[in-house]
Amino acid sequence: MIQTSEYCAVGHPDRTCDYVASYILDRHLERDPYARVALEVQLKDCFCTLSGEITSRYRFTGSELAEFCREAIRRIGYTDEYLAQWGEGNVISGSGLEVVTHISRQSEDIAQGVNREGWGDQGIFWGLAVDDPSRGNMPKDYWLARMVAQELYLRRFGGLDVKTQVTVEDGLPVECVVAIPIRPECEEAATGTIRNYVQSILGSDCRVIVNGTGRYVKHGSIGDCGTTGRKLVADFYGGNSKIGGQGPEQGGRDVEHTRPREGPGVSARASPRRGALRDQLLHRTAGDPSLVLRQGGQAPRNARRERAAVARRRPARAARARLRAGLHGGAFRK
Predict the structure, then answer these.
(1) Among residues 100, 40, 65, 97, which one has the least CA distance to residue 221?
(2) Of 47, 55, 186, 328, which is most buried, counting CB atoms within 10 Å of its CB?
């Protein structure tokens, strides 16, 4: 059996947008635990657009939201020092970001359903778990792709915009494709170091391809436009799960807008059913294979409990945990 999964570090432009959206959501929850936030972020070159609906007892100004964007991107590692290292035209710095906002309050038509303890949207969520706690109850290909991407991001073998793709055949990793920015003057040495390091994780028999196009210098939003919620396959545990609705880790969405942050139905930490076969995918949501939400409908009991838990959480601590994890990942937060 052959299985393949990919993973993107937080320096990838789509993941950067997810992180910015979650960072702004956390700032609202710090001031108002019941804030309603549905925020989309797009990032291209040094320009960032915030669009969506925010209803909160505390309203940040446009300039405050813009500074949140810049601070979030600096936290990822896109600083003035990083820009000087890679050169103008190859990468951005959070300090030089131009931000435009298009934000209104939540529609009254939607709000009336949420006010009745209902949902502000409709959608279907799928979750899974694998009977192997040693890898976080995740499919092996996904777990390995995530591990390699995070290690390369944290150890700074190259740039911040890291993607990995791992193929597992009959339980053994046979190939890993790595995309990581490398400065031309360091290319030969860095490529060998990265290959050896990946093989130290996956095994010497695993084929490792580093930057298959031969050159990767321009990165982040300079090389690719970033948008929130565009890594659905990665969000849904690689190619191992059905995909429905939006990503379970799509940034900038409060729980009333169908984003279970520690989610009923999407939690990777749910223990597999007793007696299940090893490596069998186990879809768990209160006995159903999926969590189905309808606009204006009353929230399931477990989701209402989760909504109250979100109101009590510590957003700043959660944001730091997401950054350490290499993205905004709630499903893998420890």
Answers:
(1) 97
(2) 328
Tens of pLDDT, residues 177-227: 999 999 999 999 999 999 999 999 999 999 999 999 889 999 999 999 999
- Number of other CB atoms surrounding residue 165 within 10 Å: 19
User: What are the tokens at 180?
Assistant: 């990581």
Taking the C-alpha atoms of residue 164 and residue 147, their distance in angstroms, rounded to an integer, is 9
Beta strand spans in the chain (E)? 2-8, 36-44, 47-55, 98-104, 123-126, 163-169, 172-179, 207-210, 226-227, 290-293
Check: CB of residue 150 under 8 Å from CB of residue 178: no
User: Encoding tokens for residue 250?
Assistant: 């799509």
The three-point CA angle 136-249-174 to 5° equals: 45
Strand order in the sheet with 98-104: 98-104, 47-55, 36-44, 226-227
* Residue entry with tokens 């934000």: 103
Angle at 97 between CA 91 and CA 100, to 5 degrees: 135
Q: Token digits for 266? A: 């999407």
The tens digit of pLDDT for each residue in 299-327 reads: 554 444 444 444 444 444 554 454 444 44
> CA angle 119-120-125, nearest 5°?
65
Q: Are 14 and 252 in contact (CB under 8 A)?
A: no
For 146-163, b/e burial (b = at least 16 CB within 10 A) is: bbbbbbbbeeebbbbbbb
Taken in order 105, 94, 15, 34, the sign of the CA dihedral is negative
Cα distances from 228 to residues 58, 97, 115, 179, 238, in angstroms, run 24, 17, 26, 20, 18
Specify whether the CB–CB gap between 20 and 41 falls below 8 A.
Answer: yes
Tokens encoding 45:
């070159």
Angle of the 315-324 helix axis to the 13-31 helix axis, nearest 10: 160
